[in-house]
């Protein structure tokens, strides 16, 4: 049995500062409290289904429920457009991470730099690298991840879990955001 | 005088106890081009150029490790701004780590070249001419550019390697605690190493082309190089198989020579993995390429080889252990990779063969490449008889039992670089459905980490190979052999279209096989751009992997597209060291087409390439330190590079920020005016998450400020089209690249003008169908972009135009 808070990829042990485990309720509270949250949705959202429901649909429900601006990364614009959902921005993951580490950037809505980043569906290892950048170079920012893989470089992360448990986590989060 | 030329020692009779030693007579060199400002630059010589690049393309760091453990003060926690015991911060530490990575990469290429040069001088003497035929006058553009030398014989490269080695030592020194402290300076040094890496590669390939008669512009070279077999299925295992692995072709060439001298070409199968295979096929038309690096473990474990000959680089550290498992003896041939084997260089060949064939020893070292051929061939012939009776691939029964042992713990998935769902595929195989397992064969990068964590000790690699075996046996592709340098005559034809933009770009898929989703992605990249009439130049593992895939007519890209450096060409330039000829092509555009002086003139040529040559490197499966130094060498020369998502683990990218106007200013060399311009190219080094994301990005990174309106409209067409095709959206920044209505593709001009008006608020004169207000700058066909103030033309030059 994989530990709940072990890095999902075995060798991905960054250093002394590692994420704390996040619950759906905790995630909902952080999203609600944030002044300028941002939601990054990555490529795995296009490939993942939970009980017949696409992770893209979960992403849209979370975005709508939490009223969080969405940055579509990788080729997720395709999935959003098929669902008639208009993300607030499209850019490669590396570019949004670069903007988030820039204290002068005004955010996707031009209202100021973000204070919370929520990640879902980003390829694990490039996502982990991006979270590492933010951990080191964007001290104003909190990062949380909603995947079923524990991300040590995040500020808080959902634990390692099987699909069924993850589905429950996402459903609970969506419920809390309503 | 002849004595002196030979470097002899002499005494002068009247002067006792004095000895004068003359190492080399410097002959008066013909004045082939005036010397530029920076021949053989040292660490800080090009620092200003580097800082220009780094101020626009800011280093972006993604630490893999938050600690520093390079001295005994440590481990030091550098998280989020904490300083280490020596005072270093996390950004500088990342720059330092990238410098170390580049150092390893560059050293590998340089040491390969030095080793090869020594062997070749020993074998053929110093005077082997560098003559690449009538079509190639600029034989070594990087050597001319960086060193200010026009090499005539291979011995001219002694001086080049001396220079690189001295620089490598200085750069290695700067890594030590208490030396460099600024991340910008670490990056400048990494760029210096990248440049030295490109020079090392060119030097190595020039020497091997000259000495082995590899293709250049003599008959059968260039676009006309022959096709070679690629793939598991091309190997005739009924014959004794000699498998060569690595990058230094010298011992493989000796095996080939021995086979020819003893008329064994029809008796023995000579095949290779990785760059040694690529270079061997440039020497021996009948040799075959089994695979790129990514399949090394699986090729060995599949038991194809009756003897394995390794030289240097990209060899698995467990090669001897893997080979023992399938009873294949190993011959190590390079002192940099001895694998713990006994040195038998000067033993009688038959004694060595007997020991290897009876498995008395798992392998031997033979350091004289001229003694490898006989031992390798004789061993393969003897071992074959014994190995014929072995069954390596799992039986159906073994397969069934092994997949049944899986307990779905997911540890293999957690250990897999690509997170492959191996357990789920095993569960399906238990039910008799093997496709999910066999589908893992290509996306598997062949590292074997899954087996290291399997609690049930399932040989997962063998299980996947068994599932995929029916397909693997039929894997038969074709690749063009490495053609080496791009011809000067080709550059004369395409220099203008590339600089003007009507050939929309040169795309260079290069490097290793650490792909996120298998080899097909690199094929897709090459196919997409070749069909759009870009020039596609491949090297290294990428050039092998694209040959594995065929279209509906059963043709590989090499069979479908011509091999000339021209629109729509798919060129195999060669091995990793041949990669330097892609730099060379860009440099030749500046020198042959634009008539810029090359000699010792690095900064000006790089400035020209950055502003005018729409080229983009794509190391989609970048894995090694060499790939990092290769990319960094491209970057210093002004060529952007995209890496796959695993490339994020290099820890560093160079990213432009299109939203910061101040970062995007150029000088118009006609009069020194500062011009704000579109972000072209926007980035210098970046990882992409998926191939769908990468494809439009590659097209975007081919924009250059010098594009004519016709060229820009072609580039814009592809950028928009690729984005619509793979992302289903217009690129959000396409308008940044529009300078005037004539930049817009004619067929879509009205629609695009409307979008500019509606979405960007640009002012359009609909009567004239002209843009009145909106673009970052207008289109000026005479614009002469430069980043270097010193290139602003003086009044007299301006009047001449």
Mind explaining what this structure looks like?
The complex is a heterodimer of chains A (178) and B (801). In chain A, 39% of the residues lie in helices and 15% in strands. Chain A has 178 residues and is an alpha/beta fold. In chain A, helix 1 (24-33) runs parallel beside helix 7 (163-177). Chain A is globular. The model of chain A has no long low-confidence stretch (mean pLDDT 97). Among the domains of chain B are: 47-212, Helicase, Ruva Protein, domain 3; 232-385, Rossmann fold (3-Layer(aba) Sandwich); 396-458, no CATH class; 656-682 and 708-713 and 720-801, no CATH class. In chain B, the strands form 8 sheets. Chain B has a 7-stranded parallel β-sheet, with helices on both faces. In chain B, helix 6 crosses helix 25 (625-636), helix 19 packs across helix 23 and helix 23 (580-593) packs across helix 24. The two termini of chain B are 51 Å apart.
């Amino acid at each position: 049995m994989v530990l709940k808070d072990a890095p999902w990829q075995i060798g991905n042990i960054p250093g002394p500062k590692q994420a704390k485990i996040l619950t759906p309720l905790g995630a909902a509270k952080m999203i609600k409290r944030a002044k300028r949250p941002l939601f990054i949705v990555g490529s795995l959202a296009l490939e993942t289904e939970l009980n017949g429901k696409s992770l893209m649909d979960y992403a849209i429900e979370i975005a709508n429920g939490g009223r969080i601006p969405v940055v579509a990364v990788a080729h997720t614009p395709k999935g959003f457009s098929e669902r008639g959902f208009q993300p607030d921005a499209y850019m490669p993951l590396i570019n949004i991470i670069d903007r988030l580490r820039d204290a002068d950037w005004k955010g996707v809505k031009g209202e100021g730099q973000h204070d919370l980043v929520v990640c879902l569906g980003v390829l694990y290892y490039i996502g982990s690298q991006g979270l590492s950048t933010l951990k080191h170079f964007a001290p104003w920012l909190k990062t949380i991840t909603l995947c079923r893989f524990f991300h040590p470089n995040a500020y808080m992360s959902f634990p390692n879990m099987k699909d069924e448990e993850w589905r429950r986590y996402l459903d609970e989060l969506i419920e809390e955001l309503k | 005088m002849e004595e002196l030329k030979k470097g002899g020692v002499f005494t002068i009779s009247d002067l006792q106890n004095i000895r004068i030693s003359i190492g080399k007579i410097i002959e008066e060199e013909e004045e082939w081009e005036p010397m530029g400002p920076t021949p053989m630059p040292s660490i800080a010589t090009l620092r200003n150029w580097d800082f220009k690049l780094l101020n626009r393309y800011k280093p972006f760091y993604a630490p893999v490790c938050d600690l520093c453990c390079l001295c005994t003060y440590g481990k030091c926690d550098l998280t989020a701004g904490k300083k280490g015991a020596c005072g270093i911060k996390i950004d500088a530490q990342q720059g330092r780590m990238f410098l170390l990575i580049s150092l390893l990469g560059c050293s590998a290429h340089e040491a390969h070249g030095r080793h090869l040069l020594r062997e070749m001088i020993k074998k053929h003497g110093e005077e082997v001419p560098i003559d690449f035929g009538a079509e190639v006058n600029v034989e070594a553009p990087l050597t001319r550019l960086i060193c200010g030398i026009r090499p005539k014989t291979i011995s001219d490269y002694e001086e080049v390697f001396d220079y690189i080695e001295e620089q490598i030592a200085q750069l290695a020194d700067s890594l030590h605690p208490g030396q460099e402290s600024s991340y910008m300076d670490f990056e400048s040094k990494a760029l210096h190493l990248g440049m030295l890496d490109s020079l090392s590669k060119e030097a190595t390939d020039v020497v091997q082309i000259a000495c082995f008669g590899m293709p250049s512009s003599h008959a059968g070279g260039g676009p006309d190089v022959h096709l070679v077999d690629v793939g598991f299925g091309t190997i005739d295992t009924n014959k004794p198989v000699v498998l060569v692995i690595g990058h230094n072709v010298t011992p493989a060439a000796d095996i080939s020579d021995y086979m020819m001298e003893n008329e064994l070409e029809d008796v023995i199968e000579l095949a290779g993995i990785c760059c040694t295979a690529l270079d061997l096929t440039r020497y021996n038309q009948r040799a075959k390429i089994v695979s790129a690096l990514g399949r090394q473990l699986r090729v060995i474990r599949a038991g194809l080889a009756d003897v394995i000959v390794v030289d240097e680089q990209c060899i698995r550290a467990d090669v001897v252990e893997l080979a023992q498992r399938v009873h294949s003896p190993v011959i190590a041939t390079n002192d940099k990779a001895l694998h713990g084997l006994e040195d038998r260089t000067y033993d009688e060949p038959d004694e060595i063969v007997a020991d290897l064939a009876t498995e008395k020893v798992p392998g031997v070292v033979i350091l004289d490449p001229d003694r490898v051929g006989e031992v390798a061939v004789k061993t393969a012939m003897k071992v074959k008889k014994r190995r014929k009776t072995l069954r390596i691939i799992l039986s159906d029964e073994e397969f069934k039992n092994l997949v049944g042992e899986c307990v779905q713990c997911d540890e293999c998935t957690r250990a897999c670089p690509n997170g492959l769902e191996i357990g789920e595929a095993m569960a399906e195989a238990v039910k008799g459905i093997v496709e999910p397992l066999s589908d893992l064969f290509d996306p598997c990068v062949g590292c074997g980490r899954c087996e290291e964590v399997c609690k049930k000790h399932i040989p997962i690699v063998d299980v996947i190979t068994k599932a995929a075996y029916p397909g693997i046996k039929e894997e038969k592709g074709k690749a063009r052999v490495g053609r080496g340098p791009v011809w000067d005559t080709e550059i004369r034809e395409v220099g203008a279209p590339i600089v003007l933009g009507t050939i929309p770009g040169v795309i260079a898929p290069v490097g290793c096989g650490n792909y996120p989703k298998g080899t097909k992605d690199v094929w897709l990249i090459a196919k997409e751009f070749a069909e759009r009439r870009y020039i596609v130049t491949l090297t290294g593992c990428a050039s092998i992997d694209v040959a594995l895939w065929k279209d509906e007519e059963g043709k590989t890209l090499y069979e479908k597209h011509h091999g000339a450096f021209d629109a729509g060409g798919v060129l195999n330039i060669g091995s990793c060291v041949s990669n330097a000829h892609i730099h060379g092509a860009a440099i030749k555009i500046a020198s042959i087409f634009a008539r810029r002086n090359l000699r010792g003139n690095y900064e000006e040529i790089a400035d020209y390439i950055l502003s005018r040559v729409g080229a983009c490197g794509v190391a989609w499966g970048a894995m090694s330190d060499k790939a990092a130094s290769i990319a960094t060498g491209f970057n210093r020369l002004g060529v952007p590079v995209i890496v796959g998502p695993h490339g994020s683990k290099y820890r560093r990218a160079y990213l432009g920020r299109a939203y910061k106007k101040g970062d995007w200013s150029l000088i118009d060399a006609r009069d020194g005016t500062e011009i704000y311009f579109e972000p072209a190219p926007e980035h210098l080094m970046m990882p992409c998450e998926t191939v769908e994301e990468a494809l439009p990005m590659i097209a975007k990174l081919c924009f250059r400020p010098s594009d004519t309106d016709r060229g820009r409209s072609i580039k814009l067409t592809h950028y928009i089209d690729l984005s619509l095709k793979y992302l289903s959206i217009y690129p959000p920044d396409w308008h940044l690249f529009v300078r005037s209505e004539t930049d817009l593709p004619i067929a879509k001009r009205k629609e695009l003008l409307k979008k500019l008006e509606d979405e960007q608020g640009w002012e359009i004169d609909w009567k004239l169908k002209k843009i009145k207000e909106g673009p970052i700058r207008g289109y000026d066909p005479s614009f002469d972009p430069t980043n270097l103030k010193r290139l602003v033309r003086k009044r007299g030059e301006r009047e001449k135009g």
